[in-house]
Design a protein that fits this description.
alpha/beta, seven-stranded parallel β-sheet, binds adenosine-5'-triphosphate
Length: 624
Amino acid sequence: EPTQDKQALLDFISRTPHANRLQWNSSASACSWVGVECDANQSHVVILRLPGVGLMGQISPNTLGRLSQLRVLSLRSNRLSGEIPADFSQLKLLRNLYLQHNLFSGEFPASLTQLTRLVRLDLSFNNFTGKIPFSVNNLTHLSGLFLENNGFAGSLPSINPSGLVDFNVSNNNLNGSIPETLAKFPASSFSGNLNLCGGPLNACNPFFVSPALSPTSNVPIVGKRSKKLSTAAIIAIAVGAGIILFLLLLILVLCLRKRQRRPNAAKPPKSAPRSVVTEVGTSSSKDDVAGGVAEAERNKLVFFDGGAYNFDLEDLLRASAEVLGKGSVGTSYKAVLEEGTTVVVKRLKDVAVQKKEFEMQMELLGKIKHENAVPLRAFYYSKDEKLLVYDYMPAGSLSALLHGSRGSGRTPLDWDNRMKIALSAGRGLAHLHVSGKIVHGNIKASNILLRSDLGACIADFGLNPVFGGSTPPNRVAGYRAPEVVETRKVTFKSDVYSFGVLLLELLTGKAPNQASFGEEGIDLPRWVQSVVREEWTAEVFDVELTRYQNIEEEMVQLLQIAMACVSTVPDQRPDIQVVVRMMEDINRTETDDGLRQSSDDPSKGSDGQTPPTESRTPPDVATP
Ligand SMILES: Nc1ncnc2c1ncn2[C@@H]1O[C@H](COP(=O)(O)OP(=O)(O)OP(=O)(O)O)[C@@H](O)[C@H]1O
């Protein structure tokens, strides 16, 4: 008799209205109940199937989540509503979960992305909303994912479990391009959405078509020409092509003759002498400049040496794209090129410098190569368009991770990961300051982008000089050092101030003042100063951190470092290298106690007898 599981089932059924036909007799063994199957020893419930038994209302927390050995759970075709309880994350052995045809709502249940043994997950025909999270990729054994007929919105993440054979997201509110990883599924898997494109559906439109970007300005960049050419035009083109061919041959012959006469001039220099950049897509090399390359030819996408990409401006213009967001200096797009590469294109507005100066600054930025900095891969400058091309970071920003959909059953960002983000972002900034001699100028949570292991990269650095050296006016107010408000000039020390605010954000879970956008937020340094030290633990620290043990001392130490960074007087702020060293010192005491390792083993504490003790890192941290 599975005593503990029986109690969990009784708790569930007593709190969930249901049809009369489901008569579970509490004096009989739970293994004999309708819909219940136990393991061979009759000590645990392994299958629970309750389809169409008139279950109504919410699933109470701490009921089904206690069935620790459950392999199959079917609650399909009932009238269950509300959110999936967060403690479903404890059903570590669950393989099949059928929740279709109910009235469940809320965002994609974060608890389910921790059930790494799931093979089939069916959430179809419910009222789920919000984005489909990238962390679905945690479910590496998934063979069937059914999300159709819900209200999921936003773009589809690159879902890529290798064994996925059934996939359906039809009839949602999704938009944007279908990722390469999902393009193998039929059109019916995607039909009935707001604005999905690419893959088996219609090709996506290019994200911008700017005549200024077209080398031959009157020809549309994408699209078929519908009119047929007249015979006269064809003859004219043929004659023209013949003349051009003849001239090219003539030039070739002349060049060959010249080379034969001057053997020493035969070898071109190995790399372009005046630039670290190489142009992709130009037929003429930079050394031809003296020969007078037309302006249109020079306006090419400029790549930095050592980059992994090989596409040209036209490939970029043909890419399908979705808007990631509108920032203070322009709009960022996620662009998926036809060959599958995904990049981020930042389209700058109000650039205040001429081409030469712009290029010089880009060359400086292109040299920044560090594991904690998002590399600038290429840029484009013309009179009307200024574009920057960066690597796409699929795990999103710290801002989204920290503030996105709080309280709706998501996995909070735990302490160890907050420390990891603080440290890695600090290292990125220190590299920028020390090796690059570059001021970031815009440190904030949406410019801290994450890798899937939650290592952080600083993004969007060093752009102030192209806006005339002063801070663009609509930057988020809460990160700005007091002196920058007056002078509008950013410095290494003002970066340290902003970094201090970022640390306070990690510690408090609160977003700094967004003033200029009219959104809520607070002046974090002033608010922390207003709380007396004795009250820090109760008042200042994020409530989501109170569930972890043995971290208070570390939080206090990080808070002290943050407060040093946000000193009003710039000279009193430590250099970023010093800040990093101080943070590393906190970390050292932390790893010594060995707590981190103990909590990552899902086999521990999941026997259903006792709930696993809450440690510094909850088991199986979900990737955002
Ligand atoms: N390389 C990238 N990979 C993934 N997401 C990115 C990338 N760059 C930017 N983003 C995200 O796109 C959104 C818009 O970014 P953008 O840099 O245009 O504006 P911002 O960060 O909000 O403001 P600002 O222009 O002041 O930096 C942000 O949510 C940001 O986190």
